[in-house]
Amino acid sequence: MDFRRSFSFCLIFFNVLVISCSSHNSKYGELVWNDEFDYVGLPDENKWNYDTIGNSYGWGNNELQCYTIARKKNAWVDGQHLQLTAIKESWDSFGYTSARLTTKGKGDWKYGRIEVRAKVPGGRGIWPAIWMLPTDWEYGRWPESGEIDIMEHVGYEPDSIYTTVHTKAFNHTLGTQVGKATYVPDCETEFHLYAIEWDADKIDFFIDEEKVFTFRNSGIGPDEWPFDKRFHLLLNVAVGGNWGGLHGVDDAIFPAKMMVDFVRVYQ
């Protein structure tokens, strides 16, 4: 494993939106969608949806949380950051609550640069993620239409960030998923910039502008490369589950909060 560190270069000055240039020379220069979280209240309903449809079956991963809708204890913007908070509490027969936001129907893209600056929660049993799913599922159900994991973190590995793709040919149910674990020892205490640059030939994954992984289009077809369709963004904090809960859940970690500084999409 290649362990490396770097720093983010994006800032917001005063109360006016200023998007600064980073050291990474991206071919994607047009900002087409963003949320700077410079307001107070629930997440902007023109940009975000609440996803709760998988609560009843643990989202296929035996997750323990109940995702809620428009509940400020779980999803709130404080004027600077989006706060997604997992809480130990009883709710609709679940033992935990949390939030899962999506841009589906409000932000759907084919190719571009997607970047999210965030600080992840830690502790055994927590599982935050920044990721993408297909909007139209044109190649079939998961994993046939693909999944792009821009950032995943499991609390029992406090110094690691995972970047992964899933397709029909490459996915964790077969043990063939492809991705990279990157050493980021302060991911739970500091903000980092997580990004992808995606085109017809490849998806490059970045942490703080350093490329950490590339998934290339083999040209074989959608079993290996279903990434020629529209995708949307998801932000969530899961509790437990087949991966996040592999070593159990430490209830002393709650409330557990993912802080998001901004989300920006360039094409």
Automatic annotation (TrEMBL):
One of its GO terms (biological process) is carbohydrate metabolic process. Residues 35-267 form the GH16 domain. It holds the Pfam family Glyco_hydro_16. InterPro entries: Beta-glucanase-like, ConA-like_dom_sf, Glycosyl_Hydrlase_16. Keywords: Hydrolase. The keyword Hydrolase applies. GO terms for molecular function: hydrolase activity, hydrolyzing O-glycosyl compounds. Belongs to the glycosyl hydrolase 16 family. This is Glycosyl hydrolases family 16.
